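Final report, closing paragraph on structural work. Over the funding period we assembled a curated collection of sequence-structure pairs, and we close with a single example.
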Amino acid sequence: MLLVKLFRFLVTIILFCVLLFVVNLYKYQPARIPHDQWKTDYTYHPTNTSDNIFWFVQVSDIHVSRYHDLKTRAPDFKRFTTETLDAIKPELVLVTGDLTDAKTRDFTGSEQYLDEWETYQRVLAESNVTQRYVWLDIKGNHDTFDVMSLDETKNHYLKYSGDKGKRSKFTYQVNKSFGKYSFIHVNATLVPGPRRPFNFLGYLNEASLQRLEAAAFDVKSSNLTFWYSHYPTSTITCTQPGRLRTMISHYGCAYLCGHLHDLGGLGKEMYAMHPNGFLEAELADWKINRKYRIVAVDHDLMSFVDVKHDEWPVVLITMPKPASFMMPRFEPLHRMTESTHIRFLIFNPVAIRDIRVHIDGVELENKAENVNGTSLWACKWNSEDYSHGSHVLRVTAVDQLGRSKSSQIDFNLGEKWRYHFRSTSILFLLTDFSFWLPSLFYFTILVTICSLVVIRKAQINQIPKESSHGFFSITRLLFKLNLLLSYDCFFYPFLIYSINVLLGPQFVGELVTGHLGICFSYGILLNGRFLDERQMFANSLFPMFMFVLPLLLYLSTIAELRWRKDLKFRDCFSSCTCLPVAHVFMLLDLLIMCYSCRSMSISYGMYALLLNPQLTWWLLTSIYLIFRLWNLKSIKLKKSLERFDNADKEISS
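Its predicted structure, as stored:
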């Protein structure tokens, strides 16, 4: 049968694409940079001196809350701004967004709470951290929840943050005797900022991209340029897809961000090297994980370590650097082979008692020595002994309190090496969700619409036996769908819903307090402006997979069983063992739909409940379709199938 062959072909293509994606995910390696494009600079050679090195700190997703973790989150952050930073003494501190939580107690709603911002400001004031260090704190999506414009009173960032958008608005530069280092802020927060949950992906319009490109061009002579933002590049939509990453690859070496926290434990260390040669490093949150990052630049080689608060001592190896983080286009990697000493930083509130350095499990004979009373330590080595292949370097430090901490890296002094990153990091940092979300959406919706029409119009040439190939038979599945969709009262609701998901509004709601907005699958219309919020594509797909397709399968199964056995609802619990299970799953699905409707009303007001074709109207439609199917006197086949049905009955008699 042609329809079955087409269905199997489509499934095969989908499974092949998924398999190909998974294989590429596990085997990913960035493109090799031609050797003539490697950066070279023979001005300095790493020795055992404290020059040509500086370091800074990044912390992200503070989420100061009025409802949750009141006793430890803000007090711990205050200790971080005093005890921790005083032990590290960074050149500057990057705070990459989500300074406050801005969520209601039950997490369903969101608004800017003044007392959360006052708590954040009080921590900064009492610790005097903004006077002691360069403090660049920027906005995250939580800091823009329910903020209509940049100059309105609810934009508390402008009054209560440390930087207030002054130095972070433009490029910040660290000028040293050995070079110039630039920091470019990528502000992709939405304006206006809808309330949650539809304020997750960032956006850069053409004007923002041009400003970033001009800022990057102005500092192209910098030794290294760091880009920082709240959002990973994978979650930023640009008017020109890929343009942000192209700019970074031309004018920067690393992109530092937060936002994804640790993906619920799936992404503890989210780092990945982009195909065009720059490193992206997402930092886990302070909110739950209490993480912060120390980034060191040693002779223009960047190294970093992510640290859990209150874990001491902290060891950061800076020379040589890890092979997976080497960026030959931006860093003079030859300095590692020219170095006379292994170099590493040790930060600790108390003195260090013992240090041991091992390479490939063998302890070095030369002892590590402190450099000029700083946090820098050096251990003499002969780099030529390790010029071939990969090697493992481990530095262990023990302080006077007996606390021990080790740092281990794989390094390679040759010209060929392999990058090693977690698959979750590659997936969530390198995937361009602003491209793949709409692609997956349009593919799914168009396949759904075409399938509904084709299955309804298809000529089924045979009636499958009830026991043929079990419940998951493709032939039987298509027969059930054809049986159900032959009725106009079932076909058109599914078709109209699918077309509305593709073209029409999903719901109308108070997206910002006092301002109604209209949400489509392809964006949000709010206050006369259209926001290219591609999170809506995912939001539109969720009901399709969660509510529409399960209902279609449930109704088609009931239609087939009623046709075969002429069942009534009161008889189904005793007549067929699979039906009670189907009823329970359908009831759970309807309850989840009810909860989703309630959440929408809490998040975006009563309009979002009443003017909601995506959820509320479909809930009512689902209940109607279920009752309509059970109240049909009988289920009949198409006329084209009646002769097959009659023939089967004659044979059986």
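The CA atoms of residues 62 and 99 lie 5 Å apart. The first strand starts at residue 53 and ends at 59. We thank the funder for supporting this effort.
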